[in-house]
Amino acid sequence: MVATMLIFAIQDGISQYLAREYNVFFIVMIRYWFFAIFVFVLCSKQPGGLRTVVSTRQPFLQIFRGALLAFEVIVMITSFTLLGLIESHAVFSIYPLLVAALSGPVLKEYVGWKRWTAIFIGFVGVMIILKPSNTVFSLQAIIPLVAALMFALYSLLTRYAARQDTTMTSFFWTGIIGAIVMSIIGSNYWVNLSPTDWCWLLVLCIIACLAHYLLIKCYEVSEASFLQPFAYLQLLFATIIGLFIFSEKLEIHVVIGALIVVFAGLFALWRERQKS
Q1: How confident is the model at residue 136 (pLDDT cuts 50, 70, 90)?
Q2: DSSP helix/strand/coil, 98
Q3: What is the mean pLDDT of residues 139-148?
Q4: Neighbouring residues of 11: CB distance < 8 A, sequence distance ≥ 6
Q5: Nearest 5 degrees, angle CA 193-CA 196-CA 197?
Q6: Which of 14, 45, 53, 111 is least enclosed by beta carbons within 10 angstroms?
Q7: pLDDT at 141
Q8: What letters, b where the CB count within 10 A reaches 16 and e where it falls short, cover 79-103?
Q9: What is the mean pLDDT of residues 157-176?
């Protein structure tokens, strides 16, 4: 899981570099093409083959999930180019708390007052990170928060889909639908990359597939509730990359806000694990 989070952070750094130079729709489209091939090969090796993996009782839900994740990736990479890795990930780290907040209306799960308190404290941390003026939020500040909301909804829909479909079925639909959606959008924004940047894009595609493969292996050997706290390491790794590779500044209000969000998220996860 630690290796997975490190690779995800490196992936985000490469995505930020490429998206600053080229159209984000094009970059995400190529990523999804490569990812779809990876998903196709991996799923074809499952017991029963592709026919078993593709079969789902909830196709509309799976299609919506796949499209939602594709748009979330676009929004988050856009945030990297506008706000940088550090601030984007600091705000995005609110998503486990959003999952807890939305688990009631989406999954009909009970959320007690202790977790609601953690959710409120987490949002206070986000406000500190965003450091709003006396007027209104800037659009740029809202972007990673929108990405966190989209990813939280995607996570909840994935848990909902798991009631009837296997993990590999959801994985297949995520990759294929994402590739279809991005092909429709990204084909209108084709650009010519330099040979060096084509190499970076190839590296991005390979490590993205590697990270997802490692993540699947993580969930095969351990419970999600145990692994989730390690996901916050991506914030640490992304901060290191932002500081030393992209020369971003580490503002004190971002550090304080991120710590509040992380500790609130860890508390909410601990309460959820206790309840389980």
Answers
A1: very low
A2: helix
A3: 89
A4: 204, 207, 208, 211
A5: 45
A6: 45
A7: 79
A8: bbbbbbbbbbbbbbbbbbbbbbbbb
A9: 91
Find the Cα–Cα–Cα–Cα dihedral 204, 174, 83, 262, rounded to 10°.
-110
What is the spatial distance between Cα 90 and Cα 239, in angstroms, rounded to a whole number?
Answer: 9
Confirm if 17 and 200 have CB atoms less than 8 A apart. Answer: yes
Backbone angles phi, psi at 246, to 5 degrees: -105, 5
Task: Note the pLDDT of residue 133.
Answer: 55
Residue reference for tokens 């390690």: 230
Distance, C-alpha 10 to centroid of its chain: 14
Give the start-to-end residue ranges of the domains of the chain: 2-275
Q: Which residues contact 64 (CB under 8 A, 6 or more apart)?
A: 157
pLDDT band at 223 (very low <50, low <70, confident <90, very high): confident
Q: With CA atoms as reference, report the closest residue to 25 among 198, 184, 171.
A: 184
Q: Containing H/E element for 16?
A: helix 2-21
Question: Cα 217 to chain center, whole Å?
Answer: 18
Residue 137 has pLDDT above 60, yes or no: no
Q: Which range in 91-95, 127-131, 199-203 is most confidently predicted, on average pLDDT?
A: 199-203
> Where are the alpha helices (H) located in 22-138, listed in sequence order?
24-44, 49-54, 59-83, 85-92, 95-107, 113-130
| Contact yes or no for 165/58 (Cβ under 8 A) | yes
Alpha-carbon distance 141 to 146, whole Å?
9
